[in-house]
Design a protein that fits this description.
single chain; 75 residues; mainly alpha; 5 helices
């Protein structure tokens, strides 16, 4: 049985409403988008293609990204 790291436990315990990079990683939609972009930095990502890969609407992904990270998704 694999145990989680202290960082993963900390991220998972963040209270609702927390913002910033750790909260973004914990969000199912924004966290997935960040994983995709970091895994394939040379890919020509668009809001539409990321939203499709995250099974979310473009507007939800963009709004959630801005709310958690304070900057537009494609910045």
């Amino acid at each position: 049985m694999m145990t989680s790291s202290p960082l993963r436990r900390h991220i998972a315990s963040l209270p609702t409403g927390t913002v910033g990079w750790l909260a973004a990683l914990n969000d199912p939609v924004v966290g997935r988008a960040l994983q995709l972009m970091h895994a394939q930095p040379a890919h020509a990502w668009t809001v539409d293609s990321l939203a499709r890969e995250c099974a979310a609407s473009r507007s939800l992904l963009a709004a959630q990204f801005k709310a958690l990270l304070g900057q537009p998704l494609m910045r």
